[in-house]
Amino acid sequence: MIKAPKIILVGPMGAGKTTIGRLLAQALGKEFYDSDKVIEENAGADIPWIFDKEGEDGFRRRETQVLKTMVQENASDMVLATGGGIVMREENRSILRNDALVVYLYASVAQQLHRTSKSSHRPLLQTGDPKATLKKLFAVRDPLYREVATLIVETDSRHPKHVVNKLVDAIQRHLTMEKTES
Ligand SMILES: Nc1ncnc2c1ncn2[C@@H]1O[C@H](COP(=O)(O)OP(=O)(O)O)[C@@H](O)[C@H]1O
Ligand SMILES: O=C(O)C1=C[C@@H](OP(=O)(O)O)[C@@H](O)[C@H](O)C1
Ligand SMILES: [Mg+2]
């Protein structure tokens, strides 16, 4: 079993953070959390409702609060899937850079579009042109994901189980190298 620190997954909508996070936690024997789910549980309402009533700002305030609490309260036994916009606040990026092994799950805009098209629970994509929205968000956020990432894993044309295997290998390699270096 890998003795990894807390692992936090970042990346765009549809990268597979929620799906891969759950599988990765199982593979590593860690607890799985999803910041979106914790936000919903705390609010007693779903994300579309929060965006509707409190705007994106309200959602981002809740997101930062949840990130802070999750990182403080959980030791090394956590895999945390975040929402795609977690990197928008410098305050969040600072927490991510300092407190965890952060994995950027990369997906092309085409894959993001394909994977998000089956669901309507992402308020930012309830526009006439979700592809243009994903493209715009990616241009802003891709450098921010890279800024906080310890590891980057490609997910296009890879089955979730395959992504998890790659991820376990990459984490193992990273931790072995860290040990050798110190
Ligand atoms: N590697 C993958 N290959 C194919 N489909 C995937 C992959 N990862 C996730 N999916 C599917 O894409 C959709 C969005 O995945 P999700 O885990 O909710 O992404 P995120 O949390 O990053 O927005 C889900 O229907 C999921 O089953
Ligand atoms: O990219 C974003 O700003 C968002 C991504 C969503 O999570 P997923 O990335 O898990 O879809 C969710 O946090 C919210 O709808 C906003
Ligand atoms: Mg998710």
UniProtKB/TrEMBL annotation:
Reaction catalysis annotation: shikimate + ATP = 3-phosphoshikimate + ADP + H(+)
SUPFAM superfamilies membership: P-loop containing nucleoside triphosphate hydrolases
Protein family per UniProt: Belongs to the shikimate kinase family.
Species of origin: Marinomonas transparens
HAMAP family: Shikimate_kinase
The EC number(s) this enzyme carries: 2.7.1.71
One Pfam match: SKI
Protein name, as recorded: Shikimate kinase
Cofactor (UniProt): Mg(2+)
Binding site for ATP: 14-19, 122, 158
Binding residues for Mg(2+): 18
Cofactor note: Binds 1 Mg(2+) ion per subunit.
Biological process annotations from GO: amino acid biosynthetic process; aromatic amino acid family biosynthetic process; chorismate biosynthetic process
Ligand binding (substrate): 36, 60, 84, 141
